[in-house]
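Work Package 3 committed the consortium to producing structural models of liganded targets before the mid-term review. Because experimental data for this complex are still outstanding, the team generated a predictive model from sequence and the ligand definition alone, so that downstream docking and mutagenesis planning could proceed in parallel. The input record is reproduced below exactly as it was submitted to the modelling pipeline, together with the SMILES string for zinc ion.
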Amino acid sequence: MVIDVFYMKTCRFRDTEPCSSMQGLFCNDESPKARYSMVPCGTTNCPCCHSIENSSNHRFINGYTTYLNCPATCTTSNVVYVMTCPCGQYEFIDSTSGTLATALTYHRLVYNHMMHSFLTGTPIYHEMMTHQERCQHLIMKKMRLYQHSAHCPVAIQLFLEHNPAYWCFISKSKEEVEQENDLYARIVRDTRSEFVYMLPRRTNQEKKVARLLTGVSLPTTVRHFSSVQIQKQRIFFDRLLLSPVDELPYVEADLYKMKIIVVLPTDESIILRYIIETLFITHSETKLNMICPIGIDPEQRYGQPYDHQWFYSIKHRTLSTRESILSLIETIKELNQRPSNDHDDDDNNH
Ligand SMILES: [Zn+2]
Ligand SMILES: [Zn+2]
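The resulting structure, written out as tokens with the ligand in place, is given here.
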């Protein structure tokens, strides 16, 4: 029944024409056909165009196929769209009275921030957030969509390709850590750089870095961070605290693929949009939405939004070399030698 409703075969709006052989309220035996497609708008700087492939239908992971009911582009408003994770195993349906381009910009902003928040243990603007904003952030952190991307090996790997500075937050196995720590300890001994084992807490800046480091957590007790990684985390937080507040610490990565699945009439009511969106969610069984067909907790129906062993699938880059460790020690030395009154006033300015 739902498929028939979504076929919208009696519609005549927004450049669609009813197919003469299919007129009437009820379905005949003819199966749905692709008649319209979504094409890039071609505008310079459009955030969507590069990720759009001309498409006229969408096959969901559960096998349900939907056909676009109107011609569409990045600038078409009042749409229901689907977001697919690069792993190809998880989908999310959403709708907007705006365009796909604005929805993409919003989601990209949030899922990249969530990636930062999950990996580092603290949201970027933590110190400046109001109580309400912190609550909002915690609610978002519980959303299956963001839980998934921040624990999906394919999405994380894609994020790391654009942001190698975050590799230090990806835990390693005991063996990998021991191997890296051995080399590190040898170089520290050879160069008499034992100072690297001390985490100074003289200035406010150093105290803040120490606080942020306590927020970083390991996914399980069998995973660890190497000494090199912990030092890199320290440098990461130090730079983050010194960077301008309007500057993001990462390059935004395009993780989810987005596609319009329904175009609604321009005078459509919000309620109708939500009803159609909900019908799609329940029919296509998207695992990342917070509702599901039988009205129970989606976790009961689809399980956790990600695989708890996610970290095993992340392919670490090669281990640290002697050269990279020497240069790391040099950076830590410079950090430690920074005048101690340098950032003492920081707290008073906020
Ligand atoms: Zn476009
Ligand atoms: Zn995924």
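Reviewers should note the following from the model. The chain has twelve helices and seven strands. These observations will guide the Year 2 experiments.
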